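Anyone have tokens for Cytokinin riboside 5'-monophosphate phosphoribohydrolase? Sequence:
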Amino acid sequence: GRSVGFGISLPFEDRLNPYVTPDLAFEFHYFFTRKFWMSYKCMGLVVAPGGLGTCDELFEVITLMQTGKIKRQLPVILIGKQFWQSCLNWQAFVEYGMISEHDANQIIFADTADEAFRHLVDGIGRLEEAEKLKRAAALGQ
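Reply: yep, here.
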């Protein structure tokens, strides 16, 4: 399959991973431009375990959905349930009133690539169905 890569110029990063399709490889100098283009037309977000940059990108997309800057409710899939739940206690965010239960429920956990792929396909299907309904409503159907 084809894979899109959004690289960032950093002193400790050599190149994009070998799975990126060469004509779909993009290199950025600034994080904000990289995050913008990553989220601009995406249909879903699949996040593997990572550090602060990964968390920054994850929270950026979730925040843009929460505030309506991204109009679609994208599927957000975190690979490695144990990793993510040990790093971020989503339920504590809800209990302290920092996010809603709805926000917390937007996060989907998967432990395998197959599981993540199924969630992604299901989420994209829901997005496409919502878009069809929106277009039909705009046309008065």
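Residues 1-41 form one domain.
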